[in-house]
Amino acid sequence: MSAVLHEENLILRFVRTVGHVSLFFGRLLAQSVAALARPRLIVHQIYNAGARSLIIIMLSGFFVGAVLALQGFSLLQRFGSEEALGIAAALGLLKELGPVVTALLFAGRAGTALTSEIGLMRATDQLTAMEMMAVDPMRYVAAPRFLGGVIAMPLLVAIFNVVGLFGAQLIGVQQMGVDVGSFWSQMQGSVGLNDVFEGVTKSLVFGVACSLIAVYEGYHAPPTAEGVGLATTRTVVASSVITLMLDYILTASFL
Amino acid sequence: MQNSSAAARAGAPANDVVVDVRDVRYSIGGREIFSDLSVQVRRGRITAIMGPSGTGKSTMLRLITGQAEADGGKITVWGNDISTLSGREIYAMRQRMGMLFQNGALLTDLDVFENVAFPLREHTRLPESLIRTLVLTKLHAVGLRGAAELMPAELSGGMARRVALARAIVMDPELLIYDEPFVGLDPISLGVILKLIREMNEGLGLTSIVVSHDVHELATIAHDSYLISGGKVVASGTPKELAASGSDVVKQFMTGSDDGPVPFHYPASDYRTQLIGDSSKGKAG
User: Which of these, A185, B96, B110, B220, could form a disulfide with B114 (CB 3.0-4.6 Å)?
Assistant: First the structure.
């Protein structure tokens, strides 16, 4: 009996959370339209979420590309088709690793920063003070940060991919000796616009999901040190799991 | 006209009562905060709301400003019943109020100047030169014109509160609310804040509500005081009347004695039984 009740509770809590997040998302979207009138706030947040993540994104992109080249080379070599390394690296990065790894890094770097910043603003009464000044914190604080994250994500993915391809080329061509001409020409020949489209779609969806989770958690964090800490953790965990889940759904729908 | 009719219904002189809290009940998570709270704030006066920590003084401010809704009773501000106002109307009402938070609540990513300018930039389309003049005037009034370019993290507690005060008056509010303005201030800063509260009230023709438990500080500036304890007003009147009150609760609060109607001990089971009777279990409780 108690197990049934417990499960019911879990289900109830899950449904309630989904409803709460959906409502919050709706309000966020409505305020985002209004927030577009203040491009300076959004640009500032693109800088915070995007530019400040550049180094970690580029560094990770390089190594992911390099590893992809190593693994790809050792696999393709068995079939004597090393020239296809360019395709393997490009498709792997563009469609899968670029968006996913960038989203995971984004959750760890920018997402946690967003959550703890908004959570601390709540804890130090800044959000209440805004409400008392008749300024809606959803519009002034939440919406610009959400939009900043959504815009920054595809840009970060693009940079991740470029640096990743550079890394793959450096290892594959310069170190492993794949022919430079076939590396690039096979890539050019086999990567279509639909592959790029898949990657861009994923990056946009991940951008919305990760930014929404980060802003939501920060906005609803209990105003204590422990509350903000837990909310930050939840941001990383929820963003990562949901990114991987959405990745599966999107990949399946693109096949 | 709405103002006068509401005030007349409440039985007070027309246009004189700014905030009227009547028979308000409020509880959070099953714990009753107010059982029957009635408070009147009159125009042009400094009204002190006093009471021991945890009696819900700050909660009362949340109710007055529409951040929380009462379970029962009625709260009218400028003649409008708070519970009937829409979100937009509550925001419109808040534009006529200024509020000073306990820790200042300055926006940490803006400097002092921009913090004070924030309400102006959000609610008006004034030219930059006028905003500058207004902000510098208000900062001068709190003595911090020279600190305009500092960031909130560089300010002392007292300075942060003065900047927050400048921000609270920059839109020329009619009602100024202070939430525990004296907490954690050194004697000099405290003197400055006291002087500012009095000057703002007289010089700008404001109505002020000061929530605090610092009896002696309040006595020097307040025109009316209310002492809240156990969910209701236990005494009201001028600070002098409160000091002369015969009530035990009021006496304990005004003299700061450690035990009395407000007990020193948080409610607990019998001390002896807990210590001896439970020793076999190895731990309390």
Answer: B110
Please tell me if residue B120 touches chain A, with a CB cutoff of 8 Å.
no
Give alpha helix (H) positions in chain A: 2-35, 39-49, 54-78, 85-91, 98-106, 112-123, 126-132, 137, 143-169, 180-190, 193-219, 225-254
Q: Which residue of A has its CA nearest to B118?
A: A133
For residue A75, give the 3-state DSSP assignment: helix
Confidence of residue A151 (pLDDT cuts 50, 70, 90): very high
Domains of chain B: 2-96+209-281 (3.40.50.300)
Would you say A187 and A93 are in contact if contact means Cβ atoms under 8 Å apart? no
Distance from CA of B255 to the nearest CA of A (A): 32
Choose among B95, B97, B105: nearest Cβ to A126.
B105
Does B119 reach chain A within 8 Å, measured CB to CB?
yes
Cut 0.90: pTM above it: no
DSSP, res B154: G
Which residues have CB under 8 Å from A237's CB, separation 6+?
none
Kindly state the helix (H) or strand (E) to which residue A255 belongs, with its residue range: none
**B102–A contact, CB cutoff 8 A:** yes
Task: Considering only the beta carbons, identify the residue of A129, A135, A136 that sits closest to B101.
Answer: A129
The interface predicted TM-score of the complex, written ipTM, equals 0.80
How much is the pLDDT for A210? 96
Q: Using the 8-state DSSP alphabet, how is residue B266 labeled?
A: P
pLDDT one-digit tens code per residue, A76-121? 999 988 889 999 999 999 999 999 999 999 999 999 999 999 999 9
User: Is A37 an interface residue toward B (CB < 8 Å)?
Assistant: no
Best B85, B96, B114, B122 residue to mutate vs chain A (most A CBs within 10 Å): B122
Q: Where are the domains of chain A?
A: 2-254
**Chain A contact present for B176, CB below 8 A:** no
Contact predicate B73/B23, CB 8 Å: yes
Q: Distance (Å, rounded) from C-alpha A205 to C-alpha A103?
A: 10
